[in-house]
Amino acid sequence: MMFKKLKIKEKFFIAQILGWLGTIPFFICIFFTLFYLNIDFKAREIGIAYSAIILSFLGAVHWGLLFEKIKEEPKIFFWRWLWGVAPSLIGWLGLSIMIIVNSYKIASIILSLGYVATFIFDYKVLSGYQWYKKLRVYLTIIALLSTLIIGFK
Questions:
Q1: For the chain, how many helices (H) and strands (E)?
Q2: DSSP labels for 53-99?
Q3: Cβ 110 vs Cβ 94: under 8 Å
Q4: 97 close to 109: Cβ distance less than 8 angstroms
Q5: Which of 10, 56, 112, 142 sits 20 to 30 Å CA-CA off 118?
């Protein structure tokens, strides 16, 4: 209720703060991966799992936006609905590879490719959300580099 009363700039500010707070687990996992060798494998597993979670969240953004337009022509939005699920599936694949094949490197490559794909798709499709696109540049770089550092340590 209180959120509805906020001005649009205040809402963007809150979204930006929450976005930046979401990078904290990446930095914690990098720290433990690089400097605490006796638990680095757990930090890497947690980091890869967190990366998969964040990647899944990026698809959910499309579902949220599409719910606003659900009464419009469904055929137009079919690919966006489908894309809303794709990052979750990419995240699941990366996480599965880490668990089954026991390869942080392959998992981090899959997740990183997922980040690149979602960034390209979002940058083209979300043209009316300049503030989000700008934020996504920075957050995607952090998520991408963090995932690769954790995977290739």
A1: 7, 0
A2: HHHHHHHHHHHHHHHHTTTS-HHHHHHHHHHHHHHHHHHHHHHHHHH
A3: yes
A4: no
A5: 10
DSSP state of 39: S
Which positions ≥6 away from 42 have C-beta within 8 Å? 32
pLDDT of residue 1: 47
- Using pLDDT thresholds of 50, 70 and 90, give the confidence band for residue 6: low
Predicted model pTM: 0.89
95 vs 17: CA distance, rounded Å: 27
Q: What does each C-alpha distance from 17 to 14, 21, 23, 48, 153 come to in angstroms?
A: 5, 6, 10, 23, 29
**Amino acid letter for position 52:** A
From its phi and psi, is residue 6 left (phi > 0), alpha (psi between -120 and 50) or beta? beta
Sign of the four-CA dihedral 80, 123, 109, 46: negative
Q: Is the dihedral of CA 102, 113, 32, 96 positive or negative?
A: negative
pLDDT digits (tens, 9 = 90+) for 42-87: 999 999 999 999 999 999 888 888 877 776 666 667 788 888 999 9
